[in-house]
Write a structure and sequence with these properties.
alpha/beta; Alpha-Beta Plaits; 2 domains; 5-stranded mixed beta sheet; 3 helices
């Protein structure tokens, strides 16, 4: 009788160890998911899109982070600044009559709304007014 319990216990231990091994092996073979297509949105090749970024939040340095993000995606950020009044939602202004450019930036700066506004100076193509709802993407830790 005692021998039966010992065999059953040993068998249970072997089964548990085998299950743990299988679970661990499956975890080590998890394939990384492809990046979200929005994360791959970039400026069109061969086109210079001049962008202004205005921080309409209480978070200091947000325009600088957005500048780095858009420059990494091929946009030419030529001006940054801060507004006294705050906004909840990020606003992307199409100043040059190119809604596809504004939509690309709105995808990067999501959640954002796009509005067309003609600018006769033609110095800027897009203006981005950062709102409280925008969160910059996570950055890699570089000590």
């Amino acid at each position: 009788m005692k021998r039966g319990w010992i065999v059953a216990g040993a068998l249970a231990v072997i089964i548990v160890c085998a299950l743990l091994f299988i679970v661990q092996r499956q975890r080590s073979h998890v394939v990384a998911r492809p990046l979200n297509p929005i994360a791959q949105v970039r400026a069109p090749e061969g086109v210079r899109i001049r962008v202004q970024i205005l921080n309409a939040t209480k978070t200091r340095g947000l325009a600088r982070i957005a500048t780095t993000l858009l420059r990494d995606r091929g946009f030419d950020v030529v001006e940054t600044g801060t507004l006294k009044q705050t906004r909840d939602t990020t606003l992307v202004l199409d100043l040059s009559g190119h809604p596809e450019w504004a939509n690309r930036i709105a995808q990067i700066m999501s959640p954002a709304t796009v509005t067309a506004r003609q600018d006769s100076s033609r110095y800027l193509d897009i203006a981005v007014v950062l709102g409280n709802s925008w969160r910059p993407p996570a950055q890699a830790f570089n000590p």
